[in-house]
Amino acid sequence: MKRPTDNYSETTHFGFATVSAREKAGRVKGVFDSVAERYDLMNDLMSAGLHRWWKRYTVEQAGLHRGHTVLDLAGGSGDLSLAFTRLVGQSGHVVLADINAAMLSRGRARLIDAGVAGNLAVVQVDAEQLPFADRSFDCVAMAFGLRNVTDKNRTLASMRRVLKPGGKVLILEFSKPREAIQPVYDWYSFHVLPTLGKFVAKDEASYRYLAESIRMHPGQEELLGMMQAAGFERCRYHDLTGGIVALHLGYRL
Fold this sequence. Notes:
Blueprint: E1 11-14, E2 17-20, H1 21-35, H2 39-47, H3 50-62, E3 69-73, H4 79-88, E4 93-98, H5 101-113, E5 120-124, E6 137-143, H6 152-161, E7 163-174, H7 182-201, H8 204-216, H9 220-229, E8 233-240, E9 245-252
Parallel strand pairs: 3-4, 3-6, 4-5, 6-7
Antiparallel strand pairs: 1-2, 7-9, 8-9
């Protein structure tokens, strides 16, 4: 299937459906408004808890130190932000950012309950047009968010713009698994995930969109090329769980 271009004057994909590029953001908002309340529970069920290991590995690869500034983009319920605030300390600063207000509300409440204060800001933003000054962050991380934006190239450029020279970008996202596990992965994605969504989150359609959006997302090498085209240097990726998920890294030098 040919992937439609990420251009606002054209159409784009919403799962397997083709929609107006201007329409996608609203549809994605509807998905996350619907799943926000049971988002964390569904993540544990869908991945059998593996998402926690994927995120822990991402945090380890960030290489953060006391005093660093970090943007947790599409940060949702705050898994990465919670870890980041502990690493950067009170002399550092973490911005938990997401376009979805319902997800941010859950993330903010969770971090307050965890005792995070003084080194965290919670901001509703559009990843394609980040409202931060150039060269503001030592690290920009995005976990399971890039596939949901309308224009991936614009988002990558925006992420690079707000990185300091020497800063690191980390993109954790579903990717292309090894051929040996593809049939089982497909069966799980299109049968088990929607069923879990139906009975646990009371929303089968949103979890069918999840499976479809993963299939439409660029694979490891394609995303690597997109990062390089956006100006990131020393780019690489690490496959996790047989390539079901990949962590891409790059730098602004």
